[in-house]
Design goal:
Blueprint lengths: L4 H8 L17 H6 L4 E4 L2 E4 L1 E3 L8 E8 L23 E2 L6 E2 L4 H8 L6 E2 L4 E7 L10 E7 L17 H7 L2 E5 L4 H4 L14 H16 L5 E11 L1 H12 L10 E5 L17 H9 L5 H5 L3 H8 L19 H7 L7 E6 L4 H7 L3 H8 L4 H10 L10 H26 L4 E6 L11 H4 L15 H5 L2 H4 L7 H19 L19 E4 L7 E4 L3 H13 L3
Helix pairs in contact: 12-15, 14-20, 15-20
GO molecular function: hydrolase activity
Keywords: Hydrolase, Signal
Protein name: Alpha/beta-hydrolase
Amino acid sequence: MFLPALLLIHLSNFIYFSTASPVDEVPRNPVADALRATPTARIDAGVIIGTTTTVQGATAAVNQFLGIPYASAPTGTARFSPPRPPAAWNATLDTKKSKSSCIQVFREYLEEIFGGPKETESEDCLYLNVFSPRKEWNVAKPSLPILYWLHPGGSTFGNIAQPMYDGSHFAALEDVIIVTVQYRLDVFGFPQSPDISNLTERNLGLLDQRAGLDWIHRNIKNFGGDASRITVFGASFGGASTDALVASYPADSEPPFHAAILMSGGYAWFAYQQCNDSDYTPWTTFANALNCTSLECVKGKSAADIKAVRRNQPFFFGPACDNITYVQDPRLRKQAGNFARVPVMLGSSTGDGSYFIAVVGADVDAYFTTFFPGLTGLKTRAMAAYPIGSGGRVDNFTQLSEIHTDWNFRCPSFFNAQDSAKFVPTYRYLYNATFPNTRQTNPNITAIWPLKYQGAWHTSELADVFSTFAAAYPSVDAPPEEKALSDIVRGAWAAFAKDPEKAPVEGWARVGGVDTDVLSFGTDGESGVGTVKDLIGKCNIWKDFLEANHL
């Protein structure tokens, strides 16, 4: 049954899609009723139409609006320009399918690890997806909290079409709205060109993320969301982007979000974040490969030519320290309390470093020469603190994996949490679960990363957060233990979004000087949950290095 379009538009200003009549005498099935109508919403640029799906165990269906433009296409003369609002449309816009990914480098990583998707890439990629519970609500007083997802990928790859980031289960089972956003990547998102004198305009990917936040504030009421209850959450570079948002808003400001979740990624305390925005060697090398000497020349090249050049270049295009979207001194700001005063939840995984060792190799001397050149004293202290034969370290691979996990992820999270906890409610977690379906069995991967080394690898918790293990890992069924843990993890993230002042899990203490203030998801490597002692001693080994190599 389809209601007339004008009536739907009128109703959307008051109650979002009630298909039951107030004079009905027969009890109605809300899920069945929801499926009788196609979800439509009016946003500031026009009317959109989506789809509805059901989730086992949920009391409400879920409306999916996929591929909503939150900015105009950054193509042609708009390449390397800040995001601009999309042009309004008159006809109803179909938002039933995710749009193209942003152009990226190392896309093969996604396809190897997660099996796709193999959708097209395009510069026209500034879209977001909205997953909202299908239920009655008063548009004058929307109440649902929103979780705004910033995907991982090191600022070089990633997209929201990954089956792992389908927000349907999360939205339906926890009564929240999930918004996932695409942002420009690599040189398209972070063009560190000397011809761009305004450093903020070199951080287009971060500006895209902020434009998505602004879209939520303008439009989320039309999906039942309360714009005063936005939690930004992200993993890896998405976590760093989230932390960059937290650090960039002064303590006396009103940030456009009310809480933040940092998952195996952060900005404050993360090593090698020195600001050197006048080193144009990567850009010059890139432009020369295109036979260009100016930004205008690069603008005139095809996206395919740019991607082809970038595939063969080893250097990195990331954010510039403009002190607006990406501040120069996040650690010092945190310690001084000059950051967004919002509750924070942050954590890491026990095997965050394992894949990186698979890539760089397990030669101890080569590893320390690469990451800590000249720091022989640090090497000596580290080798003494992480001896083979104890703590599960059986060889150089497991030894270096733990070392890389600690200085790159777990200890920055520890110090970041200690700084934040002095000013805002802060909760810290550790993900320590491993399940058969998350093992990477592709021969191309196991050749360098054998199954025995994988463990709770970097971002492996995402399928449990979104409860998308069936879609993310379709070849092996999720065991009951993972489903049980997913209910706890997803519930914790949702509870924090709903009320970040309260403990997301009963018994989870705020960070604040107690050495057992870390909640472990998977204390037994599976579904157990409990508190664990922190790594204060080991993290102190890395403290001086992290401080010296951040600014």
